[in-house]
Design a protein that fits this description.
47% of the residues lie in helices and 17% in strands. It has 178 residues and is α+β, with helices and mostly antiparallel strands. The chain has one domain: Orthogonal Bundle (Jann2411-like fold). Helix 3 packs antiparallel against helix 4 and helix 3 runs parallel beside helix 5. The termini are far apart. The mean pLDDT is 84. This is RNA-binding Zn ribbon-like protein. InterPro entries: ABATE, ABATE_dom_sf, Znf_CGNR.
């Protein structure tokens, strides 16, 4: 079983992050045997009631909005969102929201719906990792909103190391020219 690179994000970004690049090759966690079922269970869904193709469709819709928002991306997301709706009722004097979702679309719809809430409330905190070869997204929870990498230990360290190397090589070449 593949091990995912970034977990613990919101359900929508965690879904998007089931695709990543490893040594130049695209990796699709959801294509691995048993992976969709594992993902469904992690989020409290019954794998027997969920459709992995719907989950992939939702992932594509969310990624489309992250990478190239526009009419086509909107249409993809609206297609996913059309598989469910929320009803608001009052119980005990408090509003309660109840989703009604097409069969097999529970997890896919919930991830898409969660993404719309994230975009509505904190769009400036949704970021793609700043490493040029990384396709992972994260929700920036840092106090000042300055987080740049999905992981300081991996992409952050690689970026800083490359910058140090370039600076060192440039300094050495300058010294050789003198």
């Amino acid at each position: 079983m593949l091990e995912r690179l970034l977990v613990g994000e919101t359900i929508s970004l965690d879904l998007v992050n089931t695709e990543w690049i490893d040594h130049g090759d695209k990796v699709d966690f959801l294509a691995a045997d048993g992976a969709p079922e594992l993902w469904f269970r992690e989020y409290g869904f019954d794998p027997a009631e969920e459709d992995a193709d719907a989950l992939r469709t939702s992932r594509t819709a969310i990624r489309s909005l992250l990478e190239a928002a526009g009419p086509e991306a909107d249409a993809r997301m609206n297609d996913v969102l059309s598989h469910g709706y929320e009803s608001i009722r009052v119980a005990g004097g408090r509003p309660a929201t109840t989703p009604t979702v097409d069969s097999g679309w529970g997890a896919a719809w919930r991830a898409a719906r969660a993404f719309t809430e994230l975009v509505a409330t904190h769009p400036d905190r949704i970021r793609q990792c700043a490493h040029p070869d990384c396709v992972l997204y994260f929700y920036d929870t840092s106090r000042n909103g300055s987080r740049r990498w999905h992981s300081m230990e991996t992409c952050g360290a690689r970026t800083k190391s490359a910058r140090h190397y370039r600076r060192h090589v440039t300094d050495e070449k300058a010294k050789q020219r003198r």
